[in-house]
Design goal:
3 helices, mainly alpha
Length: 127
């Protein structure tokens, strides 16, 4: 993997994250982008404002879920890291890096969606 490695700092939360919470949280992180994609594809045909608002709401929820997945992943990963082989540790680092890029990519897509909505509103005012 040739992506630059970096770490997103987590501020102190004031409570402990339970171990083994990462898998259930990640299930939402896997399903929500698929739901958002389906909503956007349907919205290409139907062009309903309600679908756009729903997609934006799901995007916000997805960013929160990715943050929770990242935090629970750091907790579970730090517990499991020492018990893994070198190959397992390398896989865990790659898994963390992919999760980090997915989290950041979601934020970029969210702002692109907002920008496209603003551009469409501006374009309609010109017409």
């Amino acid at each position: 993997m040739n992506l630059p490695a970096f770490d997103i700092p987590i501020p102190p939360l004031g409570f402990d994250i339970p171990v083994l919470m990462h898998p259930p949280v990640v299930h939402f992180a896997i399903v929500l982008p698929i739901v958002i994609l389906l909503l956007e594809l349907i919205n290409l045909i139907m062009k309903r404002r309600g679908l756009t608002i729903t997609a934006i709401t799901f995007f916000i929820f997805l960013m929160l879920i990715y943050a929770a997945a990242y935090i629970t992943g750091k907790t579970d990963g730090s517990e499991a890291y020492d018990m893994l082989t070198r190959a397992g540790q390398a896989d865990l680092k790659a898994h963390k890096l992919i999760g980090t890029y997915l989290r950041l990519g979601t934020v970029v897509l969210f702002f692109l969606k907002l920008f496209s909505m603003a551009l469409r509103a501006w374009w309609m005012k010109l017409l």
